[in-house]
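Appendix B, record 7
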Amino acid sequence: MFYPIAADIVIVIHFLWIAFVILGFPVFLWLNSARWRLIHLAAVIWMVLMQVTRSICPLTYLEVWLKSEGRGAEVYSGKFIIETIERLIYVDNVTLEKITYATGVYLALIALSFWLRPIARKKKVRG
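C-alpha cells (predicted):
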C-alpha cells in the first residue's frame, strides 16, 4: 500500500515542479523578485539541459520505480486526480523537439527579463 501512495505523492510533486517552471516566470516578474527569478532561471536551465541531453527527469524514474514496486497492491479511491495530473504531465501529441524549442524560447525570455527590467510598481503612500 505504501508504494502506490508514494508514487502518487511523487506525481503531485512532479506536477508542482512543472507548474513552478511554467508559471514561475510571470509570477516572479510581477513580484519583481530578482532572487526568485534567479532560482527560476536555474530551474529552467536544468530543464533545457535535460532536454538537450535527452535525459529523463529523476522524478519520472522515481515514479516508475514506485509504481513497479506497488504492483498487486490495492489502489485507493483518489486515483482520478492522479490520472488527470499524469495526462497533463505526459502529453501524447507533443514531441521532444517541440518541447525543447518552446523551452529554449522560454529560457531566452527569462534571460532577457534580467536586462529589460520590469517596471517598478508604485508603493502606496499612507496619508
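Remarks on this record: The mean pLDDT is 78. The helical segments are 2-31, 34-52, 58-69, 79-89, 96-115.
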